[in-house]
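Final report, results section. Input specification for complex C-07:
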Amino acid sequence: MSEEKKKATELDENIMDHDYDGIKELDNPPPRWIMLLFYITIGWSIIYGAYYFWLKEGLHQDAEYAAKSMTHDQKYQIESLDADALVAFTDEASLAEGKQIYTDMACMACHGMAGEGNAIGPNITDGFWIHGCDIQSVFNIIKNGEPTKGMTAFKGQISDDKIQKVASYVMSLKGTNPPNAKAAQGEKCED
Amino acid sequence: MENQKFNYDNKIVKLFILATLTWGVVGILVGVVAALQLAFPVFNFGLEYTTFGRVRPVHTNAIIFAFVGNAIFAGVYYSMQKLLKTRMFSDKLSAFHFWGWQTIIVLAAVSLLAGFTTGKEYAELEWPIDILITLVWVAFGWNMIGTLTVRRVQHIYAAIWWYLATFLGVAILHVVNSFELPISLFKSYSIYAGAQDAVVQWWYGHNAVAFFLTTPFLGLMYYYLPKAANRPIYSYKLSIIHFWSLIFLYMWAGPHHLLYQALPEWAQALGVTFSIMLIAPSWGGMINGLLTLRGAWDRVRDSAALKFLVVAVTAYGMSTFEGPMMSLKSVNQITHFTDWTIAHVHIGGMGWNGGIVFGMLYWLVPKLFKSKLYSEKLANTHFWMSTLAILIYAIPLYWAAVTQWLMWRDYTDEGFLQYPNFLETLTQIVPMYAVRVFSGILFLGGFLIMVFNLAKTMASGSFIDNEVAEAPALVLAGKRNPATETIHRWLERRAVRFSILAFVALAIGGAVEIIPMIFIKSNVPTIESVKPYTPLELEGRDLYIAEGCYVCHSQIVRPFRWETDRYGEYSKIGEFVYDHPYQWGSRRIGPDLARAGVVGGPMYKNAAWHYNHFMDPQKMNQESIMPNYAWLAVKNIKLDQTPKKIKAMQTLGVPYPEGYAEKAVDDLMEQAQQISDDLKASGIDIEPQKQMVAMIAYMHKLGKDISGVVEPKEVAMHAESVEASEQKEAKLLNNKADLDAGEKLFTSTCVVCHGADGKGIATFPSLVDNEWINGNKPEQVIHSISEGNVAKGMIPYKAQFSEKQITQLASYILITLQNETSNNK
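Structure output:
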């Protein structure tokens, strides 16, 4: 008897008389660990059900959301700036940061890469303003938006501090005369 | 006993093999195209027929139903005849099955690219094709059960149990999920709505994986693995236990696709627990396969067929552990809506299904053609390419999934979303999409090598259509002798009873979940303010479905702070009661759109934005990978269909007033005109009957109905303050200068929502009729203008206009506008 055949015979001690197109079956019991795993998952499922529905220990998703949302609000006490006391930044670092925010928040989608405006949003470099030209007004329109005209409210997306910076950057664009500028809209502001 | 002579039908097996190879190439190629489209949007080709939204369903359907389907039938038709020692029951049924199935595939590919779809994943095909599928499937089952009745073998072997479960399971799933109300040859509505439709759809979707991609393959494994390895099955008992537990438990697990979504908690909990309980039954198949190879591992080294089978069984074990883990709610919030699920299904598809099919073909084709495999070396090359392709597919996508999830939920120190712009989180992972293209090409290359290898093998061999065989006739054994025969052994020789029992095991899970969702009202709490779609919005919704928008955009906000901050209020069950079909989606390649119509919410965009974005998304966001939809501005809404659609919706229980179908087109045109006018104000000229207009109307409907409900307290407080503080009388300014100033303000600001004539646009109220939401006394109108009604989209103007300006505005509205209107009457 060859080595391989002998090994196979040892392995096949429990051979049954089943024969399907030459396929035989062994009468081995399922490995004990797989049965144990099965019972454990059934037990876990019963405990899971009890935890959520019978003992009512587990939070359902509405309650879970409310609880987590409360923790979130406590962790971040979001501060707002007093719009009336705002001043426009003129230092380069703040303006550079403002420019970055302008890009990150995709302002150019509506106002153009250089603030020249496009089919959606107005030119913001020409000194004409629809919603007021002082830093407070620019701050307000960025913060609260004008949804029906397409201006997004950014208050839920960036902090007042960042809004102030991007508003300052926008203010700094005045008179830059970018190419393809859109015709003026709104009122001319006196300097 | 004397042997009976008969023929095996090898020709039908050959036909199914050829179809498998053909559709395999097509399906994988379409997959590569879809992968390219996500990495480089230029591969959408700017045509409506080739956008990702239409190509992706072609890929999934081609792989699942064309490639894998034909492979199943090839494997089943060969092994059933051998295992039952008989020819298939009816050659006519076999032929009808084969040609019917190929017809379905061709119709599917054409109709999906043409935009005819039900909008339900993996069940996209429209109703005439659904009926054809039913007929062909019945022919398959009839042929299978017929063959069982003419068998020459006493007991039916484990492989055939799995084939039976496949036939029964798919039949139940397909019929129940495909109930739809046709309105034309190419369009129907699911009879289920919203959360109910979601439960039915994922009961179907999850179990299509079970009964099309798992059970038939376990059957194939039980035949081809012991045949190729020439070893006995390790444990007969394990076969029995894992068969019954698997087919019973699988049917319950569907809701794990809907965790943290608008579904009752009990249904979600069933999805979680039954998925966990599925680990052991699934692994039962894996270990019975691997332990069957005891004593044959040295041969695995030399045989590509066995290597593929081993990788297949291993991939099956991985996927069936990963799946239950993904069903835990805490893990699911990472894996759902990200690429994790995509990687998961490709380990299953490329590893498990691909591996079994390739292993089977390398063993079966030489056998059928009485020849040797042309080149074992090429087969090995295929094996390594294919295995490598799986890794190159899965690893980058797991990486992408975790990256994107972390970015979605990342907050700045100040408490704002770190990446509020969804696109940033996508741009980050697009390089991974490029890597995936490489994986697809590698997998396709391996597949083509196999096609070449098998073609050479076929050419070198000789094929016999009808293979002669003989076996003694079957004399059915009588009653069970309890001492010598176990109940299951007895059942194995009673094929019909076996089938009935399997049917019962299959039917329970679905029934327990679906019936209460439909008939117990408390499972779908309604929301008063949710209104049916206007005819225009309905047309827009149908376009959304036809374009396959749901492939990339979800419409369900989960109750996580990082989702509500990004999108708006989380979704409630009652919002979706008029959605036939539901459109929650399963992957966010683009942002969620459930709140796209909430004015003042983070997702709202105005009509002009939508117009420009549909025309050229890359113009709006350079990094966007969305295809353009410029033809929406060219093609017209099919107005002749609109009344039929309204009637169909009424049949499905949507409460349009009686006879509304006749008025629907007028209403549609009126609303469309308003949007067209609105766009005109932004310098965009578009006729109201264009599809673009309907699409914009639908975008602005999403979430709108509950936007006022979101913070009911605030609204109520607002109403009180009107009464308490603002009741001092105000006087209008009735002189030309002030009225002209008012007009100027009105045309520069108010027209956007209330229209140049003051009649209101879309949902915004008319200012010239006799209905006033907040009263028409001068002081009330002044109050409405200065304080606004943010929830409804009315902006407070006190920060922008002086008191005098607001009074001028109110005067213009109440004097000039009202007069003009009454004079025109």
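DSSP finds seven helices and two strands in chain A. The beta strands of chain A are 128-129, 187-188. This concludes the modelling results for the funded period.
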